[in-house]
Records
---
Amino acid sequence: MATKIPFTYQYDFEYATLEEITPMIRRVTARNPSGFTFRGTGTYIIGRGDSVAVIDPGPMIDEHIEALKIALAGETVTHILITHTHFDHSPAAEPLKHHWGAKTYGYGPHGAGKSAEGVEVEEGGDMDFVPDVTVGHGDIITGNGWTVECVYTPGHTSNHLCFALQEEKALFTGDHVMGWSTSVISPPDGDMTQYMQSLALLLERDDEVYWPTHGTCIRDVKTYVQRFIDHRLEREAQILACVNEGYERISDMVPVMYTETDKSLYPAAARSVMAAMVRLVDTGQVKCSEASVSLDAHYTPAG
């Protein structure tokens, strides 16, 4: 694929340590590195003193939870904001909200964006999380000295929110846009059509810097987002080429498209192709043999 995304792999930090990263933003990184979380979950803290908000308290790891308690001892946490309900983002909210006496804010439980459409989502997230306060696109959350706008960005999950700190024109992007990797879009909760729409939404905004939950900040944000869009469009073009050449099943397309990928990763690649296929079917570019896109369906040119 031609588009090169300028990923940044440098991430200077220490686990379980409070970092000052801007005048209004602090961060504590959880010790949960993996192929999906990079170096770990970065829990962001905005505000100080009697009005503090915590964004993505992270996984249920004792060291991380204790680090947050110690880091904010003597301050008043008033808000816990959740970008989405994967296990590396929301579970620590439960013990911490009781410790701090703070309310949680989020779009809804896992799968909330799909359940509204009557789509059942398989268990694959923090099914126990239910926000104390439900927020949606355009809602404003305020504290003493800070203002956060909620930006609904479904795609990675159906309940994904970004949070914009207006005073610094900074957007906390969760897993929607990351500096070290593209996001995993896994149907049915993940939705490529919604994801592409959510990326386009960011191009309309005036944010100056992104702070993803995994990895370091992203600058020159519009150029970066456009690269993400171009990358996905090129992947769609590959799929269309396969369909037009007579490959009808995703399992047959993967070896053609992922020639430099280890075969052990083909199942993950197949789900990525399926996610892209959803949008191609939604936009009428490909016909599906079944009522909904699946790994086992057959695909043919729309023309």
---
Amino acid sequence: MSTSTGPSMAAVVCCYTMQRWDDTVAAVESLRTQQRALQRIVVVVDHNDELLARCRERWPEGQTGVTVLANEGRQGLSDGRNTGLRATDCDVVAFLDDDAFAEPDWSARLADCYTDPALRDVLGAGGYIEPDWPGGTAPTWWPRSFDWVVGCSYVGLPTRRTTVRNVIGANMSLRRDVALEVGGFNPSMGRVGKTPLGGEETEMYIRAAAARPGSRVVYEPAARVRHHVTPERATLRYFVSRCYGEGLTKAALSGITRSSAALSSESAYATKVLPVEFARGLISGDPRRGLSVALGLGVTCVGYARGLVNGARPEGGWSEAARRPMARLQAR
């Protein structure tokens, strides 16, 4: 199923709480007004009956071009995304966070990655995520190299279209057939509610690449979304918690994949990007920015070490399709 201008594309928004209702509405409406029309828009509600009813009232089936579904699997973002994958027959499925807003040319920019004659065998693509800070600006102590803490693009990412290991989940897309072939997102990883863990998209891209040798994932910074940052996320407490959670996540990812790809991007980031950002932060108008770089790296390492000691999350619930590419990775 393809359009005359490239692959057909669906978009999925996963939501779980009434507290983000206004953000969820903004996210879905930004998809309904894309310059390159999406063939399907799916909203997946994660085990919240009140929110499910509210979404179905806001976007009645057959009237708005939006399909509202309940998460068919276990609670969490991974099975929410899997529900969205199964709900469409489009070539490409894009994912937008429930607190993000897509620019009008977002879908067109992503679709172009799959038809670029300079690229071959593209299995996934994603774009730039701009933080929408409370009051319009980040705290003066906040290091831009740690914008991933709030789910956004950060200093150190490429500034032009290029091949990467994975893209960030708030703004990503995948070929549906590849995603389903390898068993979907791993429900043993990823966010459940407010738990500051993740990694399910990284693990998916690694697994998909293992299943399709020679394929690539593309980062296109021109495909832009804005990601709402709540006041509690712009705090030192959240910064530390999220860095620790990232360390745990990377330990789990390493344990599951048992592949050098699990930490390839992080190694380059820690050895090349962070030392420069640490020095810049110290000589900036607020030297706490440099100290925050050191703090963030240190806490992440502590989380990683703790994760290795405790072991990765169990793989229970994985399909055989998901295990096959992991077995190939682990055999390398």
---
Amino acid sequence: MATRTFDAVVIGAGPGGYVAAIRLAQLGKKVALVERESLGGVCLNWGCIPSKALIAAANLVEDVRGAAERGILADSPRVDLVRLREFKNGVVKKLVGGVGQLEKGNGVEVIKGTAKFVSPTAIEVSGGEAGAEKARVEAPAFILATGARSIEIPGFAFDGTDVWSAKEAVDLPELPKRLVVVGGGVIGLELGTVYAKLGSEVTFLEALPTILSGIDAEAVRLVQKGLRQRKATVHVNAKAKGFERKGKELVVTFEVDGAAQTVTCDKILVAVGMRPVTDGLGLEAAGVKVGPKGFVEVDAQYRTSAPGVFAIGDLSGPPLLAHKASKEGEIAAEAIAGKKSARDWVAMPAAIFSDPEVAAVGLSEEQARAAGHETMIGKFAFAALGRAIAMDHTEGFVKVVGDKKTGLLLGVTICGPEASDLIAEAALALEMGAYVEDVALTVHAHPTLPEAFMEACKAALGEAIHALNRPERPRKTDGAADQKA
């Protein structure tokens, strides 16, 4: 068995791993990147990117359907699934190819195959290119970035035909007349909404009391309203028990508050969450400890219990977000290179590509109060915003949460058009330690959607211009100004 040595080895080429490998190479390390499937991992191949390509296409279909209201007359749009699938695959291929070029351009060696630790400083890689022998790869430092996979639940084993995971759903094998989505979280809502917009009758079964658990309740109500407008049905407190085939139909059984119900469909999508991928890695041989929920235990630099072994991304715990994984990859790489990098962000933004979109960063109103803050709240509706009205996308709002004593901005929730893009300004404001007044005083270009963030901050101060004000709230105190200085 051939043995190869590197300064560092990254296992897993998703958005955490491929970024870590590039950063290590930039810092002068000889790096290997081991991946058993495709560069880009779940995110690029059957997660973030292909789903957003389908979401964009579904949004376009819906915009065309409603174009007559804006004076644009067009025939009813028809969806060619073959061409739509080709478009989605083209997007994936372009980005995966781009990752390959970046790794090559930075001098990272990509090794195809499955990695397994045989000691704290060595792995064996098998199952690579046809005819390739098992290889031993040694290094003083490893970064584990193996990601997560869809959770399978009893009674709904993934078969790729009747029961889909997200992987099959984004492949768009067909457009079922009736689709049951088990799970009302982010993945289920996003993909279920795509199929609803493309013409499927969609039923959501969520075991918790609400869809999108943990998200601002007002935003959830607007998402539910959007689902109803698209003739989708949502059952909460609904526990999916199993299904049986009757002729060409599938009959799904579920319970709501102990009462059994059924729904008939043509396909079932199970999207109840993701679990970290650790099986087969040989973590025991490396001395890596795994927590009770399956996530690898790490410190602020993503070091595990094993010296020289780091874990990032979905493997290191929630939230399971691609951009979190990328940031963690950079931190781990810099730690290996001897830098003082560590997890120190103020808040991690999250975006849900539902309709309307929902994005949030920092503390919600409830979280802020639970943390002991006396809150100041400002909200501005897109229905009062010129750009949103001109776009004919007026559903939703921007809500800001500040500390009433100091005026410090604590969190932002955006529900509405382009929320996933708009949240970036809020994330920057939090990282920079901005006060609500800072955003309110910042001139925003007109007419634009980001004006809603400024207006919401003005509303929190009792100074809203394009909305009626609540009773006036105190501005930032002298003490807060001194603290800021």
